[in-house]
Amino acid sequence: MPPRTKPLRKDAQRNRDLLIKTARELYAARGLDVSLDEIARTAGVSSGTLYNHFPDRADLIDAVFADRAATVVRIAENALAMEPWAGLVHFLERVCEQQAADRGYNDLVSRRVPQAPPTGEHLRGYELMQQIIERARRSGALRDDVTLEDMAFVTWGTARTVEATAGIRPQAWRRHLALMLDGLRAPAAHPLPEPPLRPDELVNAMRECS
Known about the structure:
By secondary structure, the chain is an all-alpha fold. The chain has helices spanning 10-30, 36-43, 47-53, 57-64, 66-80, 84-101, 103-110, 120-138, 151-165, 172-184, 199-209.
């Protein structure tokens, strides 16, 4: 049996909740490059208090976005209840909507940020995404050569579009996504000049974006 975690004192729990709330607001407005010291200062607590709760940036990011994995799972489950192509479109649109609404989440999905090891919900999300893609391929709607790793191009491309157009045309990413979706359709398929990225290559590419 794992050891029981001692409950936090009320004041300590209040500080932890305040830090998460403050970080979530700052990340959503400005992205993940906000410093830990600034988060502590904005929350009105000492940097030492922040580091007591979150020894490094990965711990805080994990706490702030802990609910996102569950949200992705729910989106994927809804997508799997739809017709295959409509389900793929639904999944990508809902995930991209989250990117557009939150600069911190946009950063999280478009570059490798230090995080805690994946939880069961993270792994479940990847499993469901693979099912969405395989089902769309089997239906003949999605081109046969698309892999799960290719979906990174969708999130990366949307992330950069969101960054560039958020203050000009906040919904411009929808046009970008629609263009990419047309390229994923089987009737539009032409031979691709390069093989898909391997999972390890994808990790290295995300590290380059950090």
